[in-house]
Specification:
alpha/beta, about 40% helix, two-stranded antiparallel ribbon, 11 strands, globular, 11 helices, 8-stranded parallel β-barrel
Length: about 300
């Protein structure tokens, strides 16, 4: 298995240099990847947690980390695609892929926070179609020497787009979520599946659905990456009311955490992302070091 860890761009750490320091630390400790989250406003459960504390932009964070790390994969878990213009996002991420030497993976999803869609003036009812179309637009820009795309939303041809990403034919896009729509998207459009907060049993069942749908769509399921993001309890019990309904790993019971990770491995997870959901920098560092020393080697 491969292991990633979240960088706390989303936990209100006032000193941005402390938040950024966890990227190089993850690489030093032997993690395979680092991951950042995406919200533009502190609304809903984000406001309950942060109020006015900083939530740093995911791509700005990864851009900095691309210069302070040398080998870890740089991932988003997940970018809410309807919030972003796909042409600008394709440009930014292709540039970042060049700067990092081909280390970018985009976890992408449709989003679920109604307040944020309202604030951005984006119809939440269109989030699925926006996501699907954004994936197609970005791949056309990344892969085609003469990009061309025509729809009611985007309409271009006879253009040149550069730089292209290092990774060919395009930057991998792993689909977040475990809804029926997300499973269909992973099977038909994704380069992998990257849900969060699902149990091993749920993961195994959904994985079988994705494999079946991919085969019916004429795709090779073996080409898909199988990932999952799971919260690690920084303190006993869930970090929030929202987290109470999501699968999580105990941070203070390493034996049980290892057994749970084994269950995810057996369910088909190949790349486990440990979500260290706390704004306590000392506790983040402690969890990163403990899991790297005592758990990750068991699954190499």
């Amino acid at each position: 298995m491969k292991f990633g860890v979240t960088v706390p761009n989303n936990w209100g750490i006032e000193d941005v240099n402390i938040a950024l320091s966890f990227g190089p630390l993850a690489e030093e400790l032997g993690y395979d990847s680092v991951w950042v989250m995406d919200h533009l406003f502190n609304n809903g459960y984000i406001r309950e947690r942060l109020e006015d504390k900083p939530y740093y932009h995911p791509l700005a964070t990864l851009s900095y980390l691309s210069a302070t790390t040398g080998s870890v994969l740089l991932g988003t878990s997940v970018l809410v695609l309807p919030y972003h213009n796909p042409v600008e996002l394709a440009k930014y991420t292709a540039t970042l892929d060049q700067m990092s030497g081909g280390r970018v993976t985009l976890g992408v999803g449709v989003g679920a926070m109604a307040e944020e869609f309202d604030a951005l003036g984006i119809p939440m009812s269109e989030r699925a179609s926006l996501t699907n179309e954004s994936i197609r637009v970005m791949r056309e820009l990344w892969a085609s020497p003469a990009p061309s795309y025509h729809s009611a939303r985007w309409n271009f041809e006879d253009l040149r787009f550069s730089p292209k990403p290092v990774q060919q034919p395009h930057i991998p896009m792993w689909i977040g979520g475990a809804s029926p729509g997300a499973l269909r998207r992973a099977a038909r459009l994704g380069d992998g599946w990257h849900p969060s907060g699902v149990t091993p049993e749920e993961y195994a069942a959904c994985r079988e659905q994705i494999i079946s749908m991919a085969e019916r769509a004429g795709r090779d399921p073996d080409s898909l990456a199988w990932s999952a993001r799971v919260e690690v309890e920084a303190t006993p019990g869930p970090s929030s009311e929202r987290a109470a309904n999501r699968a999580r790993l105990p941070g203070n019971d390493l034996e049980q955490a290892a057994l749970s990770i084994a269950d995810y491995r057996d369910a088909g997870v190949e790349h486990m992302v440990l979500a260290l959901n706390t704004g306590d920098a000392d506790r983040i560092r402690e969890l990163m070091e403990t899991f790297a020393a005592d758990i990750v080697p068991q699954f190499r």
